[in-house]
Amino acid sequence: DWDFDNDGSIDSNSQDPSYTFTSEGSFTVSLTVTDNLGNSDNETKIDFIAALNTELPIEIYATSFESTIADWEIFSTASTNDWERSNQTDSSHPSAAQNGSWYAHMNNYGADEPAEDWLISPSFNLANYNDIFCNFYVWTKYSDSITGLELLVTNNFSGNLNTTNWTNLNTPFYSVADEIWTSFANIDLNNFADETVRIAFKYESSGTSGGQAKAWAMDSFQIFGTDVILYGDVDGNGEVQAYDASLTLQKVIELIDFETWQITAADVDGNGEIQAYDASLILQYLAGLIDNFPVE
């Protein structure tokens, strides 16, 4: 089990893991290995990874359900039990939330029929973002003949589950161990770039009694992406104009300073420097002499 940020939570149990840090800094990494006899060993490397990405992800949305779950829609197509916001810590619930005191929870034990219950996010406009991904934690307990949880995405939510087209992200919830908050990080959403989407956690059970209904909880849901760079748009107004060339020249002769994103936008030839040639390329683009910048 990998813990990439030394927070005590499992970030991956993959043999070849990947992990995206959402802030710069040095991070302590821990690996715990357990054999089939239950023997385990741990190795911790202090400040082992330095995250220095200059284009860090932007938080598009985040919730730990601390104040409300009302911006998520709850649909029950079968059973009397529904998804709910909970802070309970009894035997059928997590002993603590992953973050804060609250989380989303569903358990169909004791209901009137097998369950199909949906927890559907607010809509997210993913236009103007690259490298889009979501993170969250889930917890489970008890057994069922089915996994009982799926992660789905739609770009045409109609308010009616039957007329909405859903894409299953095939998230391996079957690998989650009982009573451990497990991280699912870097869930790829790039197929939905430039679209407005909703994300759903679909709960199902094969029945209502012991061995027929798992309890599932979800917490710390986040969506991240990086800004789409419009090369040549040095003032950030969404257009490439002659004023952008003027700003680039002012930077060249050191009349003004640029923020990091402006340096990226102005370096239209992609050589890593801001030069008069970049201003010239911006003007050539505006005059229709070139269709794209060399950096693109």
Overall shape: it is elongated
Unreliable runs:
none
With helices defined by DSSP (H or I, 4 residues minimum), what is the helix count?
3
Mean pLDDT: 92
| Helix and strand element order | EEEEEEEEEEEEEEEHHH
Strand content: 25-35%
Given the helix and strand composition, which structural class is it?
Answer: mainly beta
Gap from first CA to last CA = 40 Å
Provide key terms for this protein.
mainly beta; six-stranded antiparallel sheet; 296 residues; 15 strands
Structure write-up:
- By secondary structure, the protein is mainly beta.
- Helices cover 10% and strands 34% of the residues.
- The protein is built from three helices and 15 strands.
- The strands form three sheets. Strands 4, 6, 7, 10, 13 and 15 form a six-stranded antiparallel sheet that branches. Strands 5, 8, 9, 11, 12 and 14 form a six-stranded antiparallel sheet that branches.
- Strand 2 and strand 3 form a beta hairpin.
- Helix 1 runs antiparallel to helix 3.
